[in-house]
Design brief:
It is an enzyme of class 2 (transferase). Keywords: Acyltransferase, Transferase. With about 290 residues, this protein is α+β, with helices and mostly antiparallel strands. The chain has twelve helices and eight strands. The radius of gyration is 19 Å and the shape is globular.
């Protein structure tokens, strides 16, 4: 993931005091996954900005909220990385094994909630977490609780129900203690109001207020990410082109499904040069 951003890897290594891991084994640890995602997404966003391509809004999904905050000018790269490093370690320490996340496709939130209620117990907790699309709902909790929920959603007619490669129950009440620790810590850093609107993970609204953004960065780990609402607010506010930072193209496809009149680009799919070319071409057509 990090082979093409060596300068940022070097910078990150000096900040956290240990060399970043980017091998297959490391991708089984939320510490290295979160750190790599933050570094990669921020680096590619900066490269686009260096070419004169500036966003009108920033929207990050979960750990992507931190690169979004950096690009909006709320936090420095250095401070954001320090918080991400702490966040990831707290999360892994809180739930070292036996927990995770899963995605359910083809059912509404109400239907998934029905399956969750049938599966949840104190010994086998499971919760609805991220609302990615009308019929793409993420659940978090114990592996036993998740598998029970998968059994129930299949009975309800889900198209797909599978575990994600996320070894922790993120975006659920199980992470409340981690969120509270992060909230205390984040206020020890220098924060600035955003220069461009930031989409809040746990409400789906937009804001420039540093206090609300700091709260979101700390607390979103214990609340569902309202990606569907975040994208809708962007579109309602005039956004017609979404550019997804690497890795992957999941968010672009979710936007395309919900907002067919918009354009989407995943840098991972077409590369930086093609991304820059298409954006300039579209701007010229509009002018």
């Amino acid at each position: 993931m990090l082979q093409d951003v060596p300068e940022y890897v070097k910078k990150a290594t000096s900040i956290i005091g240990t060399e970043l891991r980017d091998d297959e084994e490391a991708m089984g640890s939320t510490v290295w996954i979160q750190t790599a995602l933050f570094v990669k997404e921020t680096a590619i966003a900066y490269r686009l900005i260096e070419q004169g391509i500036r966003p009108q809004f920033v929207a990050g999904h979960s750990i992507g909220a931190f690169p979004a905050a950096v690009i909006a000018g709320v936090l420095s790269f250095e401070d954001a990385l320090r918080i991400v490093w702490l966040r990831a370690r707290l999360m892994e320490e809180a739930f070292p094994e036996g927990y995770g996340m899963g995605v359910i496709i083809g059912l509404t939130k109400a239907e998934v909630q029905q399956a969750v209620l049938l599966s949840h117990s104190e010994a086998t907790p499971v919760y609805i977490s991220n609302i990615n699309a009308e019929q793409q709902i993420v659940v978090s909790g114990s592996l036993v609780g998740l598998n029970n929920a998968f059994m129930h959603v299949k009975e309800l007619g889900s198209a797909k129900a599978t575990l994600l490669k996320v070894p922790i129950p993120s975006h659920s009440p199980l992470m409340s203690e981690v969120a509270n620790k992060l909230l205390l810590k984040i206020h020890t850093f220098s924060l600035r109001d955003a220069q461009i609107p930031y989409l809040v993970n746990h409400t789906g609204r937009k804001t420039k207020a540093k206090e609300k953004i700091a709260e979101d960065l700390a607390l979103n780990v214990a609340y569902p990410v309202r990606w569907m609402d975040m994208a809708a607010v962007c579109v309602e506010s005039g956004a017609d082109c979404f550019i997804e930072m690497p890795p992957g193209h999941t968010l672009s496809r979710l936007v395309k499904q919900a907002h067919k009149s918009t354009r989407q680009m995943a840098v991972d799919e077409i590369g930086l040069e093609a991304t820059q070319y298409l954006i300039r071409k579209w701007k010229e057509q509009e002018e």
